[in-house]
């Protein structure tokens, strides 16, 4: 089984092509791949409860996409765990490196 790590670093409210990443994640899962969306830098802004993207992130999680947000990026943007979409898990760069280093992983940075 293929493993894709889609890394979103762009602010989805500033860069409308972030929708591409979410759509790609769903398409990859539908094709049988294991998919993780890892949000870093301004990409974590989508992970706030009641944001325009909260429903999309819930849809990803429901489709069995692992949805992670970098804890440092969250902290830098004053987004606490209570303010996160419930389907988004806090993670860190060490975990991202571990995911990327797994044999057969295909990271895509956006």
Describe this protein's structure:
- It is a single chain.
- With 110 residues, the chain is α/β, with parallel strands linked by helices.
- Helices cover 34% and strands 23% of the residues.
- The chain has 4 helices and 5 strands.
- It has a 5-stranded parallel beta sheet, with helices on both faces.
- Helix 2 links the parallel strand 2 and strand 3.
- The mean pLDDT is 93.
Helix content: 25-40%
Q: Helical segment tally? A: 4
What do the pLDDT scores average to?
93
Tell me the number of strands. Answer: 5
Q: Kindly estimate the percentage of residues that lie in beta strands according to DSSP.
A: 15-25%
- What would you give as the CATH superfamily? DsrEFH-like
Low-confidence stretches: none
Task: Sum this structure up briefly.
The chain is of the alpha/beta class and 110 residues long.
Q: Which descriptors apply to this entry?
A:
single chain; 110 residues; alpha/beta; Hypothetical Protein Ychn, Chain: A; 5-stranded parallel β-sheet; 4 helices; 5 strands; globular
What's the topology here?
Blueprint (H helix, E strand, L loop, with lengths): L2 E6 L9 H13 L3 E6 L14 H9 L3 E5 H6 L12 E3 L1 H9 L3 E5 L1
